[in-house]
Amino acid sequence: MKPTTCPKCGSKLETLQFDDIEIERCCQCAGLWFDSLEAEQLKSIQGSEILDLGNPEENSRFDRLSKDIKCPRCRGKMLRMLDIDLYTIWYEKCTKCHGVWLDAGEFKRYKQNFQPKGVIKRAKEALRHMRQ
Questions:
Q1: β-pair type (78-84, 88-94)
Q2: CA 129 to chain centre
Q3: SS3 of 119, please?
Q4: pTM of the predicted model, to two decimals?
């Protein structure tokens, strides 16, 4: 069963497809729903960031929701997760089906957080500064 309602703003979700992977995007707030491992698959596919229409600064207000967030797929409890790398991202992950909700703008940052060349480049820069 596909999720149909946004767990953050309650609006309708539309189904999108990129490289044979289907995800859902909220028609109102543009947040993205990824079934288990879909975000992992899409982060390595060039151009997949076009699915993310949002501005992370504008949509960060959803990170401060005090209500419990229910999974749009199985209605299980969503846990707030924190990813720290180039960008700090708060996102939600379902404890039952392991789906992931990223607010608008966060998938673009999620992809950038996992760019190996970015990590290597930053490590080299840090070593260069230490040697000076």
A1: antiparallel
A2: 32
A3: helix
A4: 0.81
